[in-house]
Amino acid sequence: MTTKTKICGLNTREALAAAIDGGADYVGFVFFAPSPRHLEIAAARRLAEQARGRGDIVALTVDATDAVLDEIAKEIAPDFLQLHGSETPERVVEVKEKFGCKIIKAMPVRTSEDAALAKTYTKVADLILFDAKAPSGATRPGGHGQAFDWAVLDAVSRDIPFMLSGGLTPDNVQEAIRATCPQSVDVSSGVETAPGVKDADLIRRFLQAVKTANQS
Ligand SMILES: O=C(O)c1ccccc1N[C@@H]1O[C@H](COP(=O)(O)O)[C@@H](O)[C@H]1O
């Protein structure tokens, strides 16, 4: 199986170009004010126009209101909404119907019980994203560069196509792919030099590492 790639938290034209030119399948923009990767709508619209047709555009939100999602849908027209909060399966259905986007639902994982909860979303989300649970006291539910024990995914059916994230880097992504056989891998902190500061070289190294894994 060929593993796809998502580079998330892109916030400059240069970093976005490195992702697109390097063959990223998905490019992610963060709409969550406490995040160092948060984008205002106008900036996101310009980046989305740079990306459109060259990779799937993903808009990441956290328990967003209909008003926020409506603005994102109209102004950015993303291919996917990544719901990275405590959205219930019912809310996922509602968002998908109201805003006409495919849905990536993030599942915070520490234990195999956490991973098993994904089953309640497989019929309503287009893709499940397994991410490490945020550290206690964190002001955002993801993007901390922390991995979880990939073995806890063993109990989840291999039939579920999922995206893997949490602490991935150019150096560990090949091992992550071997261990979990994900549909795709997603990175933010691992291609940054500081929170919110993407590095074109690290983006290229990450994409190359996945390509190499796909060839072996
Ligand atoms: O990146 C953020 O700031 C963020 C904010 C709120 C929710 C999720 C966020 N990031 C996502 O978290 C995972 C893992 O990121 P990392 O590679 O461990 O830094 C990924 O999906 C990010 O897009």
TrEMBL record:
Keyword Amino-acid biosynthesis tagged: yes
MF terms (GO), sorted A to Z: phosphoribosylanthranilate isomerase activity
CDD domains tied to this protein: PRAI
Domain of life according to the entry: Bacteria
Coiled-coil ranges per UniProt: none
Keywords: Amino-acid biosynthesis, Aromatic amino acid biosynthesis, Isomerase, Tryptophan biosynthesis
Domain (N-(5'phosphoribosyl) anthranilate isomerase (PRAI)): residue spans on this chain: 6-209
Signal peptide: none
Gene Ontology biological-process entries: L-tryptophan biosynthetic process
Biochemical pathway: Amino-acid biosynthesis; L-tryptophan biosynthesis; L-tryptophan from chorismate: step 3/5
Catalytic activity: N-(5-phospho-beta-D-ribosyl)anthranilate = 1-(2-carboxyphenylamino)-1-deoxy-D-ribulose 5-phosphate
Top-level EC class as recorded in UniProt: isomerase
Assigned EC number: 5.3.1.24
Family: Belongs to the TrpF family.
Protein name listed in UniProt: N-(5'-phosphoribosyl)anthranilate isomerase
Source organism per UniProt: Hyphomicrobium denitrificans 1NES1
